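Quick one: co-fold with MTE.
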Amino acid sequence: METDDASNLERPMLIRRPDDIPSSEITPEHVYLNRRRFLGAAAAGAALAALPSRLRAGLRSAAPRAGHDRAHGPSGGVAGRATAPGLPQKDWSKVRSELDEPLTPYEDVTTYNNYYEFGTLKGDPVRHAQDFEPRPWSIQVDGLCAKPGHYDLEDFIVPSRIEDRVYRLRCVEAWSMVVPWRGFPLKDVIDRAEPLGSARFVEFTTLYDPERMPGQRRAVLDWPYVEGLRLDEARHPLTILATGLYGRDLPNQNGAPLRLVVPWKYGFKSIKAIVRMRFTEEMPATTWAMAIPNEYGFFANVNPEVDHPRWSQKRERRIGELRRRRTLPFNGYAEQVASLYAGMDLRRWF
Ligand code: MTE
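Sure, here it is.
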């Protein structure tokens, strides 16, 4: 991957090969809006209330808050770019995250992407993923679990309560965003699968379909893209499977119809277009850690004290801002997640 400074914003993450590529929605919104009582202030509030208080303190729902948010028409809002045409009637520009950070505009979240299945340049996914059809979609859950299964996406999602969660996303390339995701706790599907006592990890796999994902026709990475989490990380309440952002179904370029979001880890852990979850005893062989083991590791916790071999991780460029800001340990979620790594040498276990 390539660091992200002003001089190389549009250069690919991976610079080793000169022959780099040149260049569901799950349930449709109206269906699940009718079927499930979700996303109103009440639903989101209830979801937050169900979390332990130490987590609640670190989370903010994107649902309206009294005296803070108000509904606007599609053209309303202070930061016009956050309210792109067709976004749900909400003044997204006024929804702020727990550190009082403004959301990254919708336009940036959906045009500045890393998704090598659709090209290695930041602008490639939005261009090349437009015709990708994320329906029908199914997910295989297998490996060391009592209840493996093959689910249609809708059946996979329906038992869960969908929530909006505003999270920072910190890429290992030293840029970051603040994104209002829509999704549900990964723990829900893990609990349903009933992992065996021997299961210690969960591995995720992206769709492999070079016909539909043109980037897979080139050996830029060892396809399909694979990621993984330790089971306790996967069960952590901050870890979600995202089905949308900004109140809408996930755009193709952001990983439709289903992706992982693990906010305290570098963005490459948040695998897109998931078709399989497998419980394992052994640590999964993950794509970037296998591709360049001295640069990318399995844990990939955001850590300003551990530089990437080719650049510093002390600071980051928030998309839309000029000045770099300090990178926070665990991307600002240390209070919630640091205990998962008690006793581990976080310098060694990148
Ligand atoms: N998932 C797949 N399948 N393929 C990818 O290339 N890129 C990762 C991650 N998930 C990637 C992926 C990286 S490096 C980042 S930073 C995030 O997706 C970017 O997510 P975004 O484009 O929604 O911001």
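If it helps, Residues 5-12, 15-81 have pLDDT under 50 and may be disordered.
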